[in-house]
Amino acid sequence: MKAYVYGANGAEISDVAKPSPKGTQVLVKVHACGLNRADLGMTKGHVHGSAGGIGTVLGMEWAGEVAELGPDAKGVKVGDKIMGSGGAAFAEYTLADHGRLFRAPSNMNFEEAATLPVALATMHNAVVTNGALQPGQSVLIQGASSGVGLMAMQIAKLKGARLVIGSSTDAMRRGRLKEFGADLAIDSSDPGWVDQVLNATNGEGVDLIVDQVSGSVANQNLAATKVKGRIVNVGRLGGTHADFNFDLHAARRIHYIGVTFRTRTIEEIREIFDEVRKDIWGAVESRKLQLPIDKIYPFAEIGKAFEHMEANKHLGKIVVTL
């Protein structure tokens, strides 16, 4: 089968063996894939969690049909239209654990379905489970113009946030954040952004920051979070290392929580997918929670899709179809 593989000459489409499902695995005939920032790094040979390097079939988000079931797989049957996440997604067929997929709604095509699994699982876990957002509270999404960022703002609004603030350093994308739930859009490269947040929150700061930027804004985040507020760190777009004001962290008694899928067990990931189904799936089916598609490429042009991502001018998801 055809797959997008990182090899000695970089990432390219290659022929690889079709996988077979074992245990609780499901074999998926892939129809569309969503691109993610971690994929971009892996096309350059970077390791993401335990995956990456020579011989890796790339990709982590897909939509398709159940082609075959492992002996212990439950909850779906051959022919079901599904979407999910897991390794080796950029291929004609991929494997997924039966607990790491969603049934694709009937009113959604494969391209639309492929935009959602990573954003839904990541940001429900960050905003609701770890962020503990309550109705009437305020939230700042750092890196809000990414696909997962756009989803975070929508989930926050759905869960009753009084004030949603989104950040983007790009003026065009920042100007569109209100379409996806932002009450206020800020530029986190502007030294005055903390004052804007404090002005919008009567000088207190926000109840919750979901931070996809980290390093470059770490201390400003502390100043923009209210006493006894929460910061959930889900990314490193601003760098993995930075000076950190421990005194300010202690003085404001901030709960600072790190989350990632890279070190989670399959049991933990299944629980996250279960929480999405139980808590917000009705909003997915009614299309209250959805992501814009910036551009669709055929699989043969997946290299161009990554060039488009690297140019960093898109808003929403880049999708590849098979």
UniProtKB/TrEMBL annotation:
MF annotations from Gene Ontology: oxidoreductase activity
UniProt-listed SUPFAM superfamilies: GroES-like (SSF50129), NAD(P)-binding Rossmann-fold domains (SSF51735)
Residue stretches making up the Enoyl reductase (ER) domain: 7-320
Alphabetized UniProt keyword annotations: NADP
InterPro entries: ADH-like_C, ADH-like_N, ER, GroES-like_sf, NAD(P)-bd_dom_sf, Zinc-ADH_QOR/CCCR
Alphabetical list of Pfam families matching this protein: ADH_N, ADH_zinc_N
The protein, known as: Zinc-binding dehydrogenase
Provenance organism: Bradyrhizobium archetypum
